[in-house]
Amino acid sequence: MIGLGANVWGLKSLLQKWKSLGHINVFLLNLGIANFLFLPTLPFLTAYYFMKKKWIFGDAFCKITRFCFNLNLYGSIGFLTCISVHRYLAIVHPMKAKGKMTVRNSVAISVVVWLLVSAQSLPDMFYPKNSTNGTEKCHHTTSTKYVENYLKYSVGWTLTGFVMPFLIFLGCYGHVTLVLYHKNTINKVVIQKSLKLMFILILLFSVCYIPYHIFKNLSLYSRVSFFKHGKYPTWDEGVFCAHQISRGLVCLNSVLNPLVYLHVMDIPAQLQQLLQRFRQTFSRLFVSEYGSVPMEQTVSTTIS
């Protein structure tokens, strides 16, 4: 509910400020679309885990749910990387990028990102997601029989879908930090906004993406070891627990992504206005309920 509310608000503000934001708005819009692909599937996954991992919605919908999760995850990583590159070009190479950062190019890049993410995620749908006893399970990877091949696929997927974008992100913001540190001609507001955006993206990668990919592949390796040798590694229990936590944290990206909207569109000012309206509404409700006047109003009336 928080994710849907935050993303609806973010996209509404994005559309209201569409012309003033520049070409980065295309990437923000696609980031919001990636969130909306996944959030509606969460109630079904919640029901699955509350029912002690009994999937009652059919094998096809299980694969669709997992596919939407992957589109959200790697689509978010892709468009956050695009936003990072956009900021990098605007700060480090403003003159060279001036004629190239157009709406047409941004749309073309977005299409390429969706195609790459879909191509990376599509093979996952061909792996069995249920156990041998019908559609009782809905594995987020695959059944034990195919886990060895899935590990190879997962490692390649991690390298192309996460590691490469992450390295691009680090390279962009590493260079941006050096430029901001050595140049005294850059506006302080631009410096503050760039550093805040870098902090938000580091938070997203550190909390949501890095733990998930590390423990996902370690967990798969542990399952392969059991499949081949009949026993799990000594560190399996710790990795299993960490992997479960990381799967919860990775879902938070749909809630944390709107922080990028808040930063890029300067919504904190709107947030202050919203909080002020909430306080005013609460004060009116307090007066109507108890027939008294809030303390601040009483003081101000007495002074006047």
Topology-level CATH name = Rhopdopsin 7-helix transmembrane proteins
Q: Give the helix/strand class.
A: mainly alpha
What is the assigned CATH homologous superfamily? Rhodopsin 7-helix transmembrane proteins
User: What's the CATH C level?
Assistant: Mainly Alpha
Number of domains: 1
Q: Strand-residue fraction? A: under 5%
Order of helices and strands: HHHHHHHHHHHHHH
- Give the N-terminus to C-terminus distance in angstroms: 44 Å
Shape: globular
Number of helices: 14
The helix fraction, in percent, is: over 70%
Written overview of the protein:
The protein is mainly alpha-helical and 304 residues long. The protein has one domain (2-267): Rhodopsin 7-helix transmembrane proteins (Rhopdopsin 7-helix transmembrane proteins, Up-down Bundle), CATH 1.20.1070.10. Helices cover 78% and strands 0% of the residues. The protein has 14 helices and no strands. It has helices at 2-16, 18-21, 24-38, 42-50, 59-92, 94-97, 103-121, 147-182, 188-229, 236-251, 253-256, 258-264, 268-290, 295-303. It starts with a helix and ends with a helix.
List the helices and strands and how they pair.
Blueprint: H1 2-16, H2 18-21, H3 24-38, H4 42-50, H5 59-92, H6 94-97, H7 103-121, H8 147-182, H9 188-229, H10 236-251, H11 253-256, H12 258-264, H13 268-290, H14 295-303
